[in-house]
Amino acid sequence: MLARSPARSPGPIARSLHRFLLNRAAFAGLCMIALVIAAILSYPLWWSFKPNDIDLLAMNARPGSGHWFGTDGVGRDIFARVMDGGRISLLVALTSTVISALIGFLVGAVSALAGRFADAVTMRFVDLVMTLPPVIFLLVLASIAGTGIWPTVFVISLLSWPLLARMVRARLLELRERDFVMAARGMGAGLPHLLFRHGLPNSIDILVVFATLQIANAILLEAGLSFLGLGIAPPAASWGNMLNAARSTAVLEQYPWQWLFPGGFLVLAVLAINFIGDGLRDAFDPRAELN
């Protein structure tokens, strides 16, 4: 009889995924954000109102069967605007996170793998960027770039990458002393090969955790810019500019649904993504293998 081969043990990715699914808060966050995204993407198929449809006969209407979340001061449906605002807010957050993750990885990896001179110059530039006051820097960039989706993406992307660059550099400084990297250098491997063949696979856990937490941070940054009138400009909806439109004392006291629902979805999305980010961080933590 042939000897039965021993069962293969799960790989590190499978073990990390298993630890993530066992994290109740992370799994709950994943379910919450999945429901929010499903509603945002599918609402035009089953909801009869559009975000900018005006009904002068239903101005400041309370939530009810016709308008689930009520209407605003010009009769626009709050539910449609919350869904459309979520689409814009998540688009800004995802796009800016991808760009900042790409910039942070490239800067950190080049700093670690391109030599001491490149490391010194790159890190002094990163130090300079990190010393700038983030709030003032954000407001200055936003005032220069203007309002709209892509200027907001540009502003958030430029503000978010330095921390990732430092984390990637710290990981790859240790990696570049490994035998397989030194052997690749000895065989004439260039910087692009080192970056994407060795640097990227060994930084994927850092990138995943950073991207997840940065999405939540980007949603808050976009909301803050839009609230100040420097992000998404009306009549386009975003959670931030909906809160800005409802900041008057009369609206806060008499029509609370105009700020309660966009604010509630903003808090729900950020909370769910933070749960997911914490779960991914714990799942990818090497010390979790010992527990």
From TrEMBL:
PROSITE patterns: ABC_TM1 (PS50928). Keywords: Cell membrane, Membrane, Peptide transport, Protein transport, Transmembrane, Transmembrane helix, Transport. This is ABC transporter permease. It is a multi-pass membrane protein. One of its GO terms (biological process) is protein transport. The lineage of its organism: Bacteria, Pseudomonadati, Pseudomonadota, Alphaproteobacteria, Hyphomicrobiales. Belongs to the binding-protein-dependent transport system permease family. PANTHER family: D,D-DIPEPTIDE TRANSPORT SYSTEM PERMEASE PROTEIN DDPC-RELATED, OLIGOPEPTIDE TRANSPORT SYSTEM PERMEASE PROTEIN APPC. GO terms for cellular component: plasma membrane. It is found in: Cell membrane. Residues 86-277 form the ABC transmembrane type-1 domain. It comes from Rhizobium phaseoli. The chain crosses the membrane at residues 21-46, 88-113, 206-237, 257-277. InterPro entries: BP-dependent_transpt_permease, MetI-like, MetI-like_sf, OppC_N.
